[in-house]
Amino acid sequence: MGKLELNKKKKEDALYNTAFELFTTKGTNKTTISDIVEKAGVAKGTFYLYFKDKYDIRNKLASNKTKDLFYAAYQAVRQNRIYGFPAQLHFMIDHILGSLRNDSQLLIFVSKNLSWNVFQEALDGQMPDNDLNFYDMYLQLIKEDEQIYEHPDLMLFSVIELASSTCYNCILYQQPVPLEEYMPYLHRAIDGILSSYKKDSSVCSS
Protein backbone atom coordinates (compact mmCIF):
# COMPACT_ATOMS: atom_id res chain seq x y z
CA MET A 1 0.00 0.00 0.00
CA GLY A 2 1.47 3.35 -1.10
CA LYS A 3 1.72 6.54 0.92
CA LEU A 4 -1.42 8.03 -0.66
CA GLU A 5 -3.47 4.91 0.05
CA LEU A 6 -2.17 4.80 3.63
CA ASN A 7 -3.19 8.42 4.15
CA LYS A 8 -6.68 7.72 2.79
CA LYS A 9 -7.00 4.67 5.03
CA LYS A 10 -5.88 6.70 8.04
CA LYS A 11 -8.55 9.34 7.40
CA GLU A 12 -11.25 6.74 6.83
CA ASP A 13 -10.31 4.92 10.04
CA ALA A 14 -10.37 8.22 11.94
CA LEU A 15 -13.89 8.89 10.68
CA TYR A 16 -15.04 5.38 11.63
CA ASN A 17 -13.51 5.52 15.10
CA THR A 18 -14.84 8.99 15.82
CA ALA A 19 -18.32 8.20 14.53
CA PHE A 20 -18.50 5.08 16.69
CA GLU A 21 -17.45 7.05 19.76
CA LEU A 22 -20.04 9.77 19.11
CA PHE A 23 -22.85 7.39 18.15
CA THR A 24 -22.35 5.38 21.33
CA THR A 25 -22.08 8.41 23.63
CA LYS A 26 -24.37 11.05 22.09
CA GLY A 27 -26.56 8.84 19.93
CA THR A 28 -27.01 8.92 16.17
CA ASN A 29 -29.78 11.52 16.18
CA LYS A 30 -27.77 14.01 18.23
CA THR A 31 -24.55 13.48 16.26
CA THR A 32 -23.92 15.67 13.21
CA ILE A 33 -21.45 15.25 10.38
CA SER A 34 -19.77 18.43 11.61
CA ASP A 35 -19.28 16.77 15.02
CA ILE A 36 -17.64 13.76 13.37
CA VAL A 37 -15.23 15.61 11.07
CA GLU A 38 -14.25 18.16 13.72
CA LYS A 39 -13.36 15.48 16.26
CA ALA A 40 -11.68 13.31 13.61
CA GLY A 41 -9.60 16.25 12.40
CA VAL A 42 -10.54 15.97 8.72
CA ALA A 43 -12.25 18.30 6.26
CA LYS A 44 -15.99 17.98 5.76
CA GLY A 45 -15.45 17.32 2.06
CA THR A 46 -13.31 14.32 2.98
CA PHE A 47 -16.28 12.76 4.77
CA TYR A 48 -18.30 12.75 1.55
CA LEU A 49 -15.52 10.97 -0.31
CA TYR A 50 -16.32 7.91 1.80
CA PHE A 51 -19.92 8.26 2.98
CA LYS A 52 -23.24 9.66 1.74
CA ASP A 53 -24.43 10.85 5.15
CA LYS A 54 -24.21 9.95 8.83
CA TYR A 55 -26.61 7.04 8.36
CA ASP A 56 -24.32 5.58 5.71
CA ILE A 57 -21.33 5.61 8.05
CA ARG A 58 -23.52 4.23 10.85
CA ASN A 59 -24.65 1.30 8.69
CA LYS A 60 -21.12 0.59 7.47
CA LEU A 61 -19.88 0.74 11.06
CA ALA A 62 -22.54 -1.72 12.17
CA SER A 63 -21.62 -4.03 9.29
CA ASN A 64 -17.89 -3.82 10.05
CA LYS A 65 -18.38 -4.40 13.78
CA THR A 66 -20.64 -7.38 13.07
CA LYS A 67 -18.14 -8.79 10.56
CA ASP A 68 -15.36 -8.47 13.15
CA LEU A 69 -17.46 -10.40 15.67
CA PHE A 70 -18.18 -13.13 13.09
CA TYR A 71 -14.55 -13.42 12.07
CA ALA A 72 -13.22 -13.62 15.63
CA ALA A 73 -15.79 -16.31 16.44
CA TYR A 74 -14.87 -18.30 13.32
CA GLN A 75 -11.17 -18.08 14.15
CA ALA A 76 -11.90 -19.31 17.68
CA VAL A 77 -13.77 -22.32 16.25
CA ARG A 78 -10.78 -23.28 14.13
CA GLN A 79 -8.22 -22.64 16.87
CA ASN A 80 -10.17 -24.70 19.40
CA ARG A 81 -10.78 -27.47 16.84
CA ILE A 82 -14.53 -27.59 17.30
CA TYR A 83 -16.10 -30.14 14.95
CA GLY A 84 -19.67 -30.63 13.76
CA PHE A 85 -21.69 -27.67 12.48
CA PRO A 86 -24.22 -27.44 15.35
CA ALA A 87 -21.41 -27.46 17.93
CA GLN A 88 -19.48 -24.89 15.89
CA LEU A 89 -22.48 -22.57 15.65
CA HIS A 90 -23.18 -22.82 19.38
CA PHE A 91 -19.51 -22.11 20.08
CA MET A 92 -19.55 -19.05 17.80
CA ILE A 93 -22.67 -17.68 19.49
CA ASP A 94 -21.03 -18.12 22.90
CA HIS A 95 -17.93 -16.33 21.62
CA ILE A 96 -19.93 -13.43 20.14
CA LEU A 97 -22.00 -12.99 23.28
CA GLY A 98 -18.85 -13.10 25.39
CA SER A 99 -17.39 -10.27 23.29
CA LEU A 100 -20.59 -8.24 23.62
CA ARG A 101 -20.75 -8.82 27.36
CA ASN A 102 -17.25 -7.36 27.65
CA ASP A 103 -18.17 -4.28 25.59
CA SER A 104 -21.59 -2.87 26.48
CA GLN A 105 -21.25 0.03 24.02
CA LEU A 106 -20.68 -2.42 21.18
CA LEU A 107 -23.65 -4.50 22.35
CA ILE A 108 -25.96 -1.48 22.32
CA PHE A 109 -24.69 -0.25 18.96
CA VAL A 110 -24.92 -3.60 17.16
CA SER A 111 -28.29 -4.52 18.68
CA LYS A 112 -29.85 -1.21 17.62
CA ASN A 113 -28.49 -1.26 14.08
CA LEU A 114 -28.48 -4.91 12.96
CA SER A 115 -30.82 -4.69 9.97
CA TRP A 116 -31.02 -7.31 7.21
CA ASN A 117 -28.98 -5.10 4.85
CA VAL A 118 -26.29 -4.54 7.48
CA PHE A 119 -26.25 -8.28 8.18
CA GLN A 120 -25.81 -9.12 4.48
CA GLU A 121 -22.94 -6.66 4.13
CA ALA A 122 -21.25 -8.27 7.13
CA LEU A 123 -21.61 -11.70 5.53
CA ASP A 124 -20.18 -10.48 2.22
CA GLY A 125 -17.27 -8.52 3.71
CA GLN A 126 -13.82 -9.90 2.93
CA MET A 127 -11.99 -11.45 5.86
CA PRO A 128 -8.65 -9.91 6.93
CA ASP A 129 -6.37 -12.85 6.14
CA ASN A 130 -7.76 -14.23 2.87
CA ASP A 131 -10.02 -13.54 -0.11
CA LEU A 132 -13.02 -15.35 1.35
CA ASN A 133 -15.93 -13.66 3.07
CA PHE A 134 -17.51 -14.89 6.28
CA TYR A 135 -20.50 -16.37 4.46
CA ASP A 136 -18.20 -18.59 2.37
CA MET A 137 -16.53 -19.79 5.56
CA TYR A 138 -19.91 -20.40 7.19
CA LEU A 139 -21.07 -22.46 4.19
CA GLN A 140 -17.84 -24.42 4.36
CA LEU A 141 -18.59 -25.39 7.97
CA ILE A 142 -22.00 -26.67 6.88
CA LYS A 143 -20.49 -28.56 3.94
CA GLU A 144 -17.91 -30.25 6.17
CA ASP A 145 -20.77 -31.53 8.35
CA GLU A 146 -22.50 -33.01 5.28
CA GLN A 147 -25.84 -31.59 6.34
CA ILE A 148 -28.10 -29.57 4.06
CA TYR A 149 -30.08 -26.58 5.33
CA GLU A 150 -32.61 -24.47 3.49
CA HIS A 151 -31.73 -20.78 3.26
CA PRO A 152 -28.58 -20.90 5.41
CA ASP A 153 -28.36 -17.10 5.30
CA LEU A 154 -31.84 -16.72 6.84
CA MET A 155 -31.01 -19.44 9.35
CA LEU A 156 -27.91 -17.57 10.53
CA PHE A 157 -29.79 -14.27 10.67
CA SER A 158 -32.51 -15.91 12.78
CA VAL A 159 -29.92 -17.26 15.21
CA ILE A 160 -27.99 -13.97 15.48
CA GLU A 161 -31.16 -11.89 15.82
CA LEU A 162 -32.49 -14.23 18.51
CA ALA A 163 -29.23 -14.22 20.45
CA SER A 164 -28.61 -10.47 20.28
CA SER A 165 -32.18 -9.42 21.07
CA THR A 166 -32.89 -11.86 23.90
CA CYS A 167 -29.49 -11.48 25.56
CA TYR A 168 -29.50 -7.67 25.45
CA ASN A 169 -31.33 -7.26 28.76
CA CYS A 170 -29.63 -10.30 30.29
CA ILE A 171 -26.23 -8.69 29.73
CA LEU A 172 -27.03 -5.06 30.51
CA TYR A 173 -29.58 -5.42 33.30
CA GLN A 174 -29.41 -9.08 34.41
CA GLN A 175 -33.09 -9.30 33.45
CA PRO A 176 -35.15 -11.43 33.32
CA VAL A 177 -32.19 -13.55 34.49
CA PRO A 178 -28.38 -13.24 34.24
CA LEU A 179 -26.85 -14.35 30.95
CA GLU A 180 -25.32 -17.52 32.42
CA GLU A 181 -28.72 -18.67 33.61
CA TYR A 182 -30.36 -17.90 30.28
CA MET A 183 -27.77 -19.56 28.01
CA PRO A 184 -29.09 -23.16 28.23
CA TYR A 185 -32.51 -21.96 27.07
CA LEU A 186 -30.96 -19.95 24.25
CA HIS A 187 -29.07 -22.99 23.01
CA ARG A 188 -32.25 -25.06 23.03
CA ALA A 189 -33.94 -22.37 20.95
CA ILE A 190 -31.00 -22.36 18.52
CA ASP A 191 -31.31 -26.13 18.16
CA GLY A 192 -34.95 -25.58 17.29
CA ILE A 193 -34.00 -23.08 14.59
CA LEU A 194 -31.44 -25.47 13.10
CA SER A 195 -33.98 -28.27 13.09
CA SER A 196 -36.58 -26.14 11.33
CA TYR A 197 -34.16 -25.26 8.49
CA LYS A 198 -32.78 -28.78 8.09
CA LYS A 199 -33.64 -30.53 4.83
CA ASP A 200 -34.94 -34.08 4.97
CA SER A 201 -32.12 -36.31 3.69
CA SER A 202 -34.61 -38.65 2.01
CA VAL A 203 -36.04 -35.73 0.03
CA CYS A 204 -32.56 -34.53 -0.94
CA SER A 205 -31.53 -37.95 -2.25
CA SER A 206 -34.68 -38.56 -4.26
Count of helical stretches: 11
Structure summary, number of beta strands:
0
Number of domains: 2
Give the terminus-to-terminus CA distance.
52 Å
Secondary-structure element order, as H and E? HHHHHHHHHHH
Structural class: mainly alpha
Q: Which percent range fits the helix content?
A: over 70%
Question: Which overall shape is indicated by the principal axes computed on the Cα atoms?
Answer: globular
Indicate the mean pLDDT.
90
Q: Biggest sheet: strands, sense, closure?
A: none
InterPro entries: Homeodomain-like_sf, HTH-type_Tx_Regulator, HTH_TetR
Protein name: TetR/AcrR family transcriptional regulator
Pfam family, one: TetR_N
Keywords: DNA-binding
What layout of secondary structure does this protein have?
Elements: H1 3-25, H2 33-40, H3 44-50, H4 54-79, H5 85-101, H6 104-113, H7 116-124, H8 134-144, H9 152-173, H10 179-197, H11 201-205
